[in-house]
Amino acid sequence: MYVYISVKEDPVFKRQGNHLFIDMPITFTEAALGAEIEVPTLEGVENFNLSEGTQTGTRFKLKGKGVASLRGIGKGDLYFTVNIKVPSKLTEKQKNLLLEFANESGEEYKQANEQKKGFFDKVKDAFHN
Question: Which end of the chain is more exposed for a tag (fewer CB within 10 A), N or C?
Fold first, then answer.
């Protein structure tokens, strides 16, 4: 008799040995101001304090929150990488607040859908000024 076992891949956790890896979406506000976030683990939810100014792609470790060793000694770690969710639809008020933020930060913002002026348009503008 032959027995075949296949393990289905988990939609949340990726495993490498005894270590687990997950991607954690966070908001711009949580990343910029710092926040307490809830990180899923095999035992439930673990609270984690993000420091202000957290950058997308930053990896954190929860020691001992991975998979138990087959030999019964120790556990792996859980690593999570934060990714900032950028909203796809903003209200006019939100857009204005972001423009104000960019201005206050000294950013030079150029709107993507503005048409670039060609050479002749620039020459025409020079004569009209």
Answer: N
Q: E-assigned strands of 42-85?
A: 44-50, 59-62, 78-85
pLDDT of 1-45, one tens digit each?
Answer: 888 877 778 888 899 989 999 999 999 999 999 999 999 999 999
Which domain CATH number covers 120?
2.60.260.20
Bridge partners (DSSP) of residue 115 are none
Domain-embedded: residue 5: no
Per-chain mean pLDDT for the chain: 87
CA-to-CA distance for 23 and 26, rounded, in angstroms? Answer: 10
Residue 115 lies in a domain: yes
Q: Is the full-model pTM beyond 0.70?
A: yes
The helix/strand/coil state of 128 is: helix
Tens digits of residue pLDDT in 36-76:
999 999 999 999 999 999 999 999 999 999 998 887 788 99
Domain count, the chain: 1
In a domain, 3, yes or no: no
